[in-house]
Amino acid sequence: MTTRAGFVALIGEPNAGKSTLLNRMVGAKVSIVTHKVQTTRARIRGVAIEDHSQIVFVDTPGLFRPRRRLDRAMVAAAWTGAADADVVVLLIEAHRGKTEGVQAILDSLTEKAGGRRIALAINKIDRVEAPVLLKLTEEMNAAYPFEETFLISAEKGYGVDDLRRWLAQAMPEGPWLYPEDQIADLPMRMIAAEMTREKLTLRLHQELPYQLTVETESWQERKDGSARIDQVVYVARDGHKGILLGKGGETIKAISKAAREELEEFLGRKVHLFLQVKVRPNWLDEAERYSEMGLDFRDGN
Ligand SMILES: Nc1nc2c(ncn2[C@@H]2O[C@H](COP(=O)(O)OP(=O)(O)OP(=O)(O)O)[C@@H](O)[C@H]2O)c(=O)[nH]1
Ligand SMILES: [Mg+2]
Question: What is the pTM of this model?
Answer without folding.
Answer: 0.97
